[in-house]
């Protein structure tokens, strides 16, 4: 289920980024307390960039106009430096002294949208020991704005005392399992309508990796879309057919950010929604982001010609408002795609297996050696590849293992909390 702008003619914030009546209802208590809604565009340790309506501040900036940016180091134009404090002209907007995160700020200012700006906010007050409950790119937040007529604004409206007081409930969340021995999940993006799975056609797609990505995307609650990038590169047309077969019920788009092929179809599909872009380094995520944004908002690096693997150009998750409406969350390349519990995503990714399983003689068929198993019969006659059945079983086992680790962690945390409460209520207890 997607949550697109319910009123496409309203290009004001927050509606342009997907705000709707449900969010407004959830935010009502915070609005009564004097807080304002904001959408988190980037998260750092203890601080984050938040998009808010510009009229919450005294130094209003209308990004439909070519206005100046006032910073501690001088006054600068929206696209280039104008003057410094001494009145000297010239400079490079991408290297403005005193302007934090100028790439994101300039991209926001280039959009033809109404009264929107980026502020720097402290989220340490809501920090949780559970990383999945901490702010993530795409979250909607209740923001306490600290600027007033007495305190002059700092660089481009950034101030360390603007704070995140609460996060609104997430409608969707892309969560992967943490690497190593930890049982925590890692939220890659929140409140997205689409999960774009970038797969390069410059090399043969990895079937197992795509199946993992599809399970991850389906589990998020958003709509997966496979985007086959670098269509301009020499490739076997059969690869596209193989990907389509691996993604039942999923739109598969073949695009080239270089030639523009397929881009109109992708823009039309996204509409005014929010999309998260996932994939390995080197699949062309940053190039695709730049094409959708209409400008070079992300750095681009070349791939190694030996194996078509890329370098990590994108190092943080960042929400980019798009000129066509909606937003795109670009993410760093994923080296590993660990699942984080729940069988719904795996079942959706392997719906062809489930459709066969519906004809098995036994409802609890394990699809191994049971008589009357429609799944193994399909494998025997070549209707279902053995590799795909093996992949399905592997992901189910992984999900079960992750769930058991998570349950053990939750139980241990509850036990620790119980002991702390017991000690605090009985000071005499050692």
UniProtKB/TrEMBL annotation:
- Residue ranges occupied by any CP-type G domain in the UniProt entry: 182-337
Subcellular localization:
Cytoplasm
**Any one cellular-component term (Gene Ontology):** cytoplasm
- Top enzyme category: hydrolase
Q: What is its main location?
A: cytoplasm
**EC number(s) in its UniProt entry?**
3.6.1.-
EngC GTPase domain sequence ranges: 190-335
Q: Which InterPro entries match?
A: G_CP_dom, P-loop_NTPase, Ribosome_biogen_GTPase_RsgA, RsgA_GTPase_dom
Keywords for the protein's UniProt record, in alphabetical order:
Cytoplasm, GTP-binding, Hydrolase, Metal-binding, Nucleotide-binding, Ribosome biogenesis, RNA-binding, rRNA-binding, Zinc
NCBIfam families in the cross-refs = ribosome small subunit-dependent GTPase A
Its recorded name reads Small ribosomal subunit biogenesis GTPase RsgA
Lineage runs: Bacteria, Bacillati, Actinomycetota, Actinomycetes, Catenulisporales
Annotated gene = rsgA
